[in-house]
Design brief:
By secondary structure, the protein is α+β, with helices and mostly antiparallel strands. Helices cover about 25% and strands about 25% of the residues. Strand 11 and strand 12 form a beta hairpin.
């Protein structure tokens, strides 16, 4: 349950995009990855399970087991899709933090152990939003900055990336970093960013370099967090968590693997959130999104 240790908290981050069309794409991608022949009839047959899956998705939150203290989620967009995971978290007392938009993409949900100090959410000239919040731990009185990002993407299949491809994402990240740096100048401490980057370092490094040059550590799975159902050979790792502390020696994120905390043996300190992971081929009762959620624990100072 959230807040078991008064000096650390659990973060879950990921893209929850899952309408019926998203769901069809997600299962198609997973089936192709398992080298299962996919036909239109097969996809449509499985897609008839979608209403049941939406209820199951929410049921994971309803039972209250292994809930995180903070969620940084992308593709909320309530005007387009139902998002049962968000609805159920709000019913359980989580506070939704978002930009002042009618159809926000990036959101943060904080558990009752935290209180909102300041909503600093922003959106750029293209309307791409980032949820940014200063929150205070009621148990310790300590504050941290949390952000949920969905960076505007480009075609990762292109062999040559042009400046025009990355202009929207670069503008977005510049705005987010400017906001975060202003908060850091006010003396804020731990900063946690959950992001759908729509890129990965091996394909496009500058966005990651920009974050790292400004003191952020990149936490990654080094495995696909997103499968492209249109091309089963493309397994993209585009979901990441970044963290920044005032002093490099104060980096203290450690992993939570299958519900058990462990000290990190390497810098890749986040794992898949198995509570929202299909356990086998044909079992889509947990997460119909084509993204996989990341989970880890963060220490406050």
């Amino acid at each position: 349950m959230p807040g078991v240790n008064s000096n650390d908290f659990t973060v879950v981050s990921g893209n929850i995009g899952a309408g019926i069309d998203d769901f069809k794409e997600a299962i198609t991608g997973d089936l192709l990855a398992e080298k299962v022949e996919v036909t239109a009839d097969l996809v449509n047959d499985i897609a008839t399970q979608y209403p049941v899956i939406e209820r199951s998705y929410a049921a994971i939150v309803t039972d209250g087991k292994n809930l995180a203290d903070i969620y940084t989620l992308q593709e909320y967009r309530p005007k387009e899709h139902q998002r049962p995971i968000v609805d159920k978290l709000i019913e359980k007392g989580y506070l939704l933090v978002k930009a002042d938009l009618k159809n926000p993409d990036a959101v943060i949900l904080i558990s009752p152990r935290f209180e909102l100090v300041k909503n600093c959410s922003v959106y750029d000239s293209r309307g791409s939003d980032a949820a940014i919040a200063v929150v205070r731990d009621k148990e310790t009185g300590k504050e941290c900055v949390v952000a949920s990002l969905h960076v505007p993407g480009f075609n990762l299949n292109k062999s040559k990336i042009e400046a025009d491809d990355t202009a929207a994402g670069s503008e977005y990240l510049d705005l987010v970093l400017s906001t975060l740096n202003d908060l850091q100048a006010e003396g804020r401490k731990v900063e946690i960013l959950g992001a759908d980057m729509n890129a990965f370092p091996e394909k496009y490094k500058p966005w990651f370099t920009n974050l790292e040059d400004q003191g952020f550590t990149t936490h990654r799975l080094n495995k696909a967090t997103n499968i492209d159902p249109k091309d089963p050979n493309i397994f993209k790792e585009i979901d990441f968590v970044f963290e920044r502390h005032p002093a490099p020696a104060a980096k203290t994120i450690y992993s939570m693997l299958f519900g058990s905390s462990v000290e990190p043996a390497d810098p890749n300190q986040f794992s898949l959130d198995r509570d929202f992971e299909p356990v086998g081929l044909g079992d889509y009762t947990s997460n119909p999104s084509d993204h996989r959620l990341l989970k880890g624990r963060v220490k406050l100072f």
